[in-house]
Amino acid sequence: MTSNRFRWAWWLLAYASLGLGLVGVVLPGLPTVPFVLLSAYAAARGSERLHRWLLAHRVFGPMIVDWQAHGAVSRRAKRMAVLSMAVCGVIMWLTAPRAWMAATGIGCMAVVAVWLWRRPEPPLQRES
């Protein structure tokens, strides 16, 4: 836990990023995973209760643990992210007032997709 001096700022960042991540679940184009990971990072410094809740969460917990332990993203998460970016790219291409605007957004998503696929995948969990 960090000093009490900035604890409130970490707390605020943790809850704000979690809120944005939850909105991203239903709003195309707004990513969920980066905001949840940012929330976990900030919560570890500003809200022990939120950090414990995130790590124990059925959906978010394994993703956060994989990232913290290995810097890893599951293949399923990579596929879902790239699929979402592709859908958003098509929508941008069809609706942008200028082609360069869509191309800029699509280019940024392509860079993120390449970076994402270069991340390692978590080690296989053996069932005992």
UniProtKB/TrEMBL annotation:
Transmembrane segment boundaries: 12-44, 77-94, 100-117
Provenance organism: Luteimonas lutimaris
Topology of this chain in the membrane: Multi-pass membrane protein
Localization (cell): Cell inner membrane
Protein name stated in the entry: Inner membrane protein
Pfam families, alphabetized: DUF454
Keywords noted in UniProt: Cell inner membrane, Cell membrane, Membrane, Transmembrane, Transmembrane helix
